Amino acid sequence: MQFAPPLVSGRLVRRYKRFLADVVLDDDGSEITCAVPNTGSMLGLTAPGSPVWLSTSNNPKRKYRHTLEIVQAEGTMVGVNTGLPNRLAEEAIRAGLSSDLHQYASLKREQRYGTNSRIDILLEDPVRGRAYVEVKNVHFVRGQRLAEFPDSVTARGARHLDELSSMVREGHRAMMIYVVQRSDCDHLRLCRDLDAVYCSAFDRASEAGVEAMAIQCQITETEITPFRTIPIVD
Question: What is the per-residue pLDDT across 120-135, written as a single tens digit (0 to 9) for each?
């Protein structure tokens, strides 16, 4: 996935109200407010002075012209836009990075299913049947080369796991794809100390037959590219 138009760079002043951040732009030194498309805590990614990269919109109806896309933390570029992982997961599937999912005949995004929910990706095939794919963004790191999810309590994420289990019981295939938007990790682990409820739901889903995989991305100022799978460890 390439950024077009090109991102603009700056330094983070502060993130606040979850969806806003103040940034000093590198090109002219002006301070602007940008949108932050991330509902999580962004632990480790909000230090004042951190290098950041923003996308720019010319839509006159938008209140904030800029959107926070990338933060540099511990020398690594980290994607923070939680609106991108579905697109990145689709790219990974079509590139053959995610098991055999690329062999399904059709791929649709944001399809209704379960109890008043939407599945991120629905795969259908006349022979293989249906595969329900839920996608989560990962950017939290505490240990060396170890990504973790979630970085805060996510009741919605636990509900999604239970609904995937229901799809398996109905005879379909279901999978969790964790999109790791940073390239300095070799493994993914669930944060059992930060959200025990989510992790219990993950365990139930695994026992029910829900599959899981983690796909790591390479990130530059110009693009984010899924490039390999990494193990999920306990």
Answer: 999 999 999 999 999 9
145 φ/ψ angles, rounded to the nearest 5 degrees: 60, 30
pLDDT recorded at residue 143: 80
Domains in the chain: ranges and CATH = 8-79 (2.40.50.580), 85-233 (3.40.1350.60)
Helices 155-169 and 196-208, axial angle in degrees (round to 10): 10
Q: How far is CA 117 from CA 95, 141, 179, in A?
A: 27, 29, 20
3-state class (DSSP) for residue 33: strand
Name the region of 17 (left: φ>0; alpha: ψ -120 to 50; beta: rest): left
Q: What is the pLDDT of residues 183-233, one digit of tens each?
A: 999 999 999 999 999 999 999 999 999 999 999 999 999 999 999 999 999
Could you give the dihedral angle defined by the CA atoms of residues 101, 214, 163 and 151, in that order, rounded to the nearest 10 degrees? Answer: -160
DSSP class of residue 66 equals E
As given in the structure block, the two tokens for residue 118 are 């939407």
Spatial contact of 154 and 192, defined as CB atoms under 8 Å apart: no
Query: pLDDT for 28-60, tens place per residue?
Result: 999 999 999 998 899 999 999 999 999 999 898
3-state helix, strand, coil in the chain (%, to 5): 20, 45, 40
Q: How far apart are the C-alpha atoms of 5 and 147, rounded to whole Å?
A: 29
Rounded-to-integer distance, Cα 36 and Cα 124, Å: 34
